[in-house]
């Protein structure tokens, strides 16, 4: 075999090898991007949401227990049935989200801590309600001491064990989400870099080969090779942009949508804790100063989680109603205080708190929907990959072989 055929064979082999490497890079990069996105959107994010929902449900559960004891059996003063219904709903939500977290791979030890603690919490609450129900014609907002002792044990257990355990699950889920998103972004950036370099080298080989071809065979342009060069350059640029864009989309979905959702979800739990402090403020007068300060501290935290004017306005109303509640207690009007805290009527604390929580929940849900839309868009951007580019590269292989075959035949006949 002469030098020219050998060089021609070498050129063809090098180009074909480059096409295979480029196709493999696109296939691997797309596979990693798609699997990483799926992990973030359908595993890590739902787990983080379940942890956030669990924390809120626990916080609001204790608030509703406090409201049940606050109202007692006098339906003329407070809305006991509403408090009971919400208490049962929150308790069911706690169980549901613990099951989701357990199925999603959360720490079995922490999950077991929650399950064991909830058993004790339920027992304390049941005893508190039983003791309260057995007293006829009790004073307004003054459950029997035994019932209050059980309630104090329940709320202490919730703050010392249950909420910290839920918080640990939330931190773990959040860290996994961040790690998964970071890994997917890293893979996408490396894919963009590797494909860019491989494609650039292949384009250089094609250009140099065509210059040699033109000089040796006196052909200014080889249509097939020119088409391959254009296709490889276009695919390389498109793939590099695609994977870089994928990394950006995932970063924005996490930082501009899911992180704000988690912030607002935690604000909802803080708001429920603040509301619970108001009920505790009424039924536990010996601890009124601590609960009053607790509400003020939580209100400061809530001021930092105001996503829009609507939420801000409703938070102002909630804080204003707290002052009315304190004034009623200070004036000895416990019946008014109980009505403010539990009757859902416009102008009452219970109504304005519900209004505030609804606005906060809507804002949180909007952020979560934005996250889902962003991840769906990122998945849609990968539609057709890698099969469409691989199909184009397959055509490139045919064009390279078709361009080289006539020249190789000429030398075979000599």
Automatic annotation (TrEMBL):
Record-annotated membrane-spanning stretches: 190-213, 220-243, 384-404
Keyword set includes Membrane: yes
Protein name (record): Secreted protein
Organism domain of life: Bacteria
Keywords: Membrane, Transmembrane, Transmembrane helix
Species: Embleya hyalina
């Amino acid at each position: 075999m002469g030098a020219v055929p050998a060089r021609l064979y070498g050129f063809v082999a090098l180009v074909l090898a480059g096409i295979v490497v480029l196709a493999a890079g696109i296939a691997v990069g797309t596979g990693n991007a798609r699997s990483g996105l799926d992990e973030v959107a359908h595993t890590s994010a739902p787990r983080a949401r379940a942890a956030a929902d669990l924390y809120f449900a626990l916080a609001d559960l204790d608030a509703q227990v406090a409201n049940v004891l606050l109202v007692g059996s006098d339906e003329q003063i407070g809305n006991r049935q509403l408090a009971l219904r919400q208490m049962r709903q929150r308790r069911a939500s706690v169980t549901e989200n613990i099951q989701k977290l357990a199925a999603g791979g959360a720490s079995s030890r922490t999950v077991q801590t929650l399950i064991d603690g909830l058993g004790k919490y339920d027992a304390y609450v049941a005893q508190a309600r039983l003791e309260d129900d057995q007293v006829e014609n009790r004073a307004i907002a003054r459950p029997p001491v035994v019932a209050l002792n059980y309630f104090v044990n329940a709320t202490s257990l919730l703050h010392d064990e249950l909420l910290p355990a839920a918080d640990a699950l939330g931190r773990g889920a959040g860290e996994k989400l961040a790690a998964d998103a970071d890994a997917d972004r890293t893979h996408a950036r490396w894919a963009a870099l590797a494909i860019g370099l491989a494609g650039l080298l292949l384009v250089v080989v094609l250009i140099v080969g065509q210059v040699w071809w033109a000089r040796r065979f006196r052909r200014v342009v080889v249509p097939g090779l020119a088409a391959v060069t254009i296709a490889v350059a276009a695919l390389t640029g498109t793939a590099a942009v695609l994977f870089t864009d994928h990394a950006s989309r995932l970063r924005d979905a996490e930082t501009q949508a899911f992180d704000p959702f988690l912030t607002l979800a935690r604000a909802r739990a803080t708001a429920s804790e603040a509301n619970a402090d108001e009920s505790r403020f009424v039924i536990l007068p010996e601890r009124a100063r601590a609960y009053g300060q607790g509400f003020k501290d939580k209100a400061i935290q809530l001021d930092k989680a105001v996503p829009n004017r609507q939420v801000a306005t409703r938070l102002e109303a909630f804080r204003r109603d707290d002052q009315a509640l304190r004034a009623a207690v200070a004036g000895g009007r416990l019946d008014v205080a109980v009505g403010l805290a539990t009757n859902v009527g416009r102008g009452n604390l219970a109504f304005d708190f519900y209004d505030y929580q609804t606005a906060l929940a809507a804002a949180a849900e909007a952020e979560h929907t934005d996250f889902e839309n962003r991840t769906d868009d990122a998945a849609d951007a990968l539609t057709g990959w890698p099969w469409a580019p691989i199909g184009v590269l397959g055509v490139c292989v045919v064009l390279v072989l078709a361009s080289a075959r006539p020249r190789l035949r000429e030398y075979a006949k000599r």
